[in-house]
């Protein structure tokens, strides 16, 4: 918000003083920010085609103790640092000029250009920003009021633009300006002049002549019909860019308003470029004397590279490319894209273009014959038939290396392709019954099959990673299927063939299988097909049958009220008797629990077949009483169905 302001023009129209008081965004209090940036703009009179004439930015006004009041000096010479990138670069005198001459052409922030009228005012627009709020004050009008004792300019005209007369101003003294005589005297430099509106030759100084629309330097009668002529012992033309490294000097060729070509040199580097059209670079000569073409090199004759001997060849360093002739090796040499030196072997059979990367694009069949055995054609497109290249080239492309019976190693990938069931076959002898081969899944599904000499499938690997032996559709990581009255699978010690793990079908029908673990002493563990497990016996009659003694390896100590028999069948505690919860008592199981407390107390029990959810009915002995201090009391639990029967022995 603007509360009162003052704008005063200072001679000679270079600046004026601006003072204002700024308020916060709500307009309720003075702005007290410690750092405020203010942008000042001067515009042409308000209207539909208003043009920006001037813009500057002043930063870091401290209003924390000024009550929002600040003062700024607005205006500067062209090129001043406080002018912004949006500033059109006009002098202050031009900005205020009303001499009916266009002072701003159409462009950014000026739609139609601006030519002032005699009494035009200007508009001041002020915008402030304290980092959190940006506001624009109401526009102010700047009126042109003559107030200087000695004016720097009059309606934009500087003192040097006027004629200075010494002595009295009389009609005679001013006749050259006002009389009917030859007004061309104003243009007279050395007695030779061109009358205003005349069409003839004129001399602009020694050696500079214009003749019938042609311009000549160094020859008053330039030969030929060209429009521009320079003649001297060492003619020189110079163009200097003054953009601080960002400029570009150009010679442009137009047809009407259409740019056909140009020659350009940048101020930032030593290079010369030739363009076709307005923006297509056809040739660049860089600072390393390289010629970089934007298109192909088409020559009616031939391109002759420089001649170098082997020593000079070796001394060359990698550049962006290059080609030369080695006079010792009698071959054309070039640098590839990686800076490696290569040789281009010539041939009368070569019907091609030589590409910049050293490869050859064939336009006709290339027949190769003779040469050393280690010479080959590389880089061929993938053949589709054996006739597409010589046998060696065909094998190279498909296999990646020369294939022989012995001694050679394949260095590339081996790809086998066929419309149906591609396979690789290994022949031991000429008899096909001993052959073995690897084949893509015959059913068409993804996977791999292995066949033995009999032609039958031995095992299969599916695309899901399932491996089947005797099974053409494996459903598990290892899926073994066989119907026989013998061992189905065996893992044995090679030095003692009877030892190991066996999967066995014990009858001739092959319909029942068992799992056995054998040692040299015989079968030590067997799981029958009906689910019965035998340890030390091959014919268990119950779910678990042990031929021999069994025991727990250790008892389990408990210090809590929950006794979990999932950790072992023998549990004990040094706590006094109390209420104990017994977990994981399984049907048919026998469990032992010992108590030795420091205080005589009576134990009570709740029992569960799981971790505390499915309760069992606990049956305590009728003579059950309190324990004896510092002695063991042994409890035995026998689980039958949903009942847990308890026996106890106190005072041990």
Account of the 3D structure:
- The protein is mostly beta strands and 652 residues long.
- The protein has 7 domains: 2-159, Sandwich (Immunoglobulin-like); 199-234, no CATH class; 248-293; 306-362; 416-471, no CATH class; 487-546, no CATH class; 556-649.
- It is built from 4 helices and 46 strands.
- The two termini are 101 Å apart.
- The relative contact order is 0.03.
Strand and helix layout:
Blueprint (H helix, E strand, L loop, with lengths): L1 E9 L4 E8 L13 E8 L8 E10 L7 E6 L17 H5 L25 E8 L4 E3 L3 E3 L10 E2 L2 E2 L16 H4 L23 E4 L2 E4 L2 E4 L10 E3 L17 E8 L2 E9 L5 E5 L3 E6 L5 E3 L12 E3 L1 H6 L7 E4 L4 E5 L5 E4 L7 E3 L5 E3 L28 H9 L23 E4 L9 E5 L6 E5 L5 E6 L4 E3 L8 E3 L6 E7 L2 E9 L9 E6 L2 E6 L5 E3 L8 E3 L9 E2 L4 E3 L5 E4 L5 E5 L6 E6 L8 E5 L6 E5 L13 E8 L2 E7 L3
Parallel strand pairs: 13-14, 20-21, 30-31, 36-37, 38-40, 39-41, 40-42, 41-43, 44-46
Antiparallel strand pairs: 1-2, 2-5, 3-4, 3-6, 6-7, 6-8, 9-10, 11-12, 12-13, 15-16, 16-17, 17-18, 18-19, 21-22, 22-23, 24-25, 26-27, 27-28, 28-29, 29-30, 32-33, 33-34, 34-35, 35-36, 42-45, 43-44, 45-46
List keywords for this structure.
disordered N terminus; 7 domains; 652 residues; 4 helices; mainly beta; nine-stranded mixed beta sheet; six-stranded mixed beta sheet; 4% helix; Immunoglobulin-like
């Amino acid at each position: 918000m603007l509360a009162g302001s003052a704008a005063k023009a200072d001679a000679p129209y270079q600046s004026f003083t601006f003072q204002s008081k700024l308020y916060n965004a709500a307009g309720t209090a003075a702005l007290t920010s410690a750092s405020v940036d203010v942008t000042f703009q001067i515009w042409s009179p308000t209207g539909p085609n208003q043009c920006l004439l001037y813009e500057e930015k002043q930063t870091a006004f401290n209003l924390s103790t000024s009550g929002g009041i600040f003062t700024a000096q607005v205006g500067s010479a062209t090129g001043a640092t406080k002018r912004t990138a949006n500033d059109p670069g006009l002098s202050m005198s031009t900005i205020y000029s009303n001499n009916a001459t266009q002072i701003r052409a159409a462009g950014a922030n000026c739609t139609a250009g601006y030519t002032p009228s005699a009494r035009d005012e200007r508009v001041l627009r002020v915008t402030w920003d304290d980092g959190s709020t940006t506001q624009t004050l109401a526009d102010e009008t700047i009126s042109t009021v003559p107030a200087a004792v000695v004016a720097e300019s009059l309606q934009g005209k500087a003192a040097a633009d006027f004629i200075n007369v010494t002595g009295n101003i009389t009609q005679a003294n001013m006749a050259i300006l006002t009389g009917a005589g030859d007004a061309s005297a104003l243009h007279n430099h050395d007695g030779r002049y061109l009358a205003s509106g005349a069409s003839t030759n004129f001399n602009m100084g020694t050696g500079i002549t214009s003749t019938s629309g042609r311009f000549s330097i160094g020859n008053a009668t330039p030969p030929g019909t060209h429009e521009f002529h320079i003649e001297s012992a060492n003619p020189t033309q110079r163009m200097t860019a003054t953009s601080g490294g960002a400029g570009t000097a150009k010679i442009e060729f137009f047809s009407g308003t259409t740019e056909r070509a140009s020659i350009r040199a940048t101020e930032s580097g030593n290079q010369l470029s030739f363009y076709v059209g307005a923006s297509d670079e056809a040739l660049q000569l860089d600072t390393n004397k390289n010629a970089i073409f934007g298109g192909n090199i088409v020559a009616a004759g031939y391109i002759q590279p420089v001649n170098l001997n082997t020593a000079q060849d070796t001394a060359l360093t990698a550049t962006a490319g290059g080609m030369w002739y080695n006079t010792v090796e009698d071959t054309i040499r070039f640098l590839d894209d990686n800076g490696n030196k290569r040789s281009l072997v010539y041939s009368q059979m070569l019907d091609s273009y030589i590409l910049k990367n050293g490869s050859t694009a064939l336009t006709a069949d290339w027949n190769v014959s003779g040469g050393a055995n280690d010479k080959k054609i590389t880089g061929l497109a993938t053949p589709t038939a054996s006739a597409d290249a010589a046998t060696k080239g065909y094998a190279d492309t498909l296999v990646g290396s020369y294939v022989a019976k012995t001694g050679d190693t394949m260095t590339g990938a081996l790809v086998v392709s066929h419309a149906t069931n591609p396979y690789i076959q290994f022949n031991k002898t000429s008899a096909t019954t001993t052959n073995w081969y690897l084949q893509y899944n015959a059913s068409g599904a993804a996977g791999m099959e292995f066949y033995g000499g009999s032609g039958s499938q031995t095992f299969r690997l599916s695309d899901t990673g399932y491996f089947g032996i005797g099974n053409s559709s494996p459903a598990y990581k290892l899926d073994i299927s066989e119907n026989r009255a013998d061992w189905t699978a065996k893992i044995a010690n090679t030095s003692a063939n009877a030892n190991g793990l066996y999967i066995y079908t014990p009858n001739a029908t092959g319909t029942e299988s068992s799992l056995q673990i054998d040692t040299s002493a015989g079968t030590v563990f067997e799981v029958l097909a009906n689910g019965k497990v035998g340890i030390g016996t091959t014919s268990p009659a119950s779910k678990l049958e042990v031929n021999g003694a069994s025991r727990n390896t250790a008892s389990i100590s408990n210090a809590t009220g929950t006794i979990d028999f999932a950790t072992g069948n023998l549990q004990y505690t040094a706590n006094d008797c109390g209420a104990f919860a017994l977990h994981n008592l399984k049907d048919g199981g026998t469990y032992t629990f010992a108590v030795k407390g420091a205080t005589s107390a009576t134990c009570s029990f709740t029992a569960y077949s799981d971790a505390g959810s499915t309760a069992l009915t606990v049956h305590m002995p009728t003579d059950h009483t309190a324990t004896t201090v510092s002695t063991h009391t042994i409890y035995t639990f026998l689980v039958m169905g949903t009942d847990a029967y308890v026996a106890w022995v106190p005072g041990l």
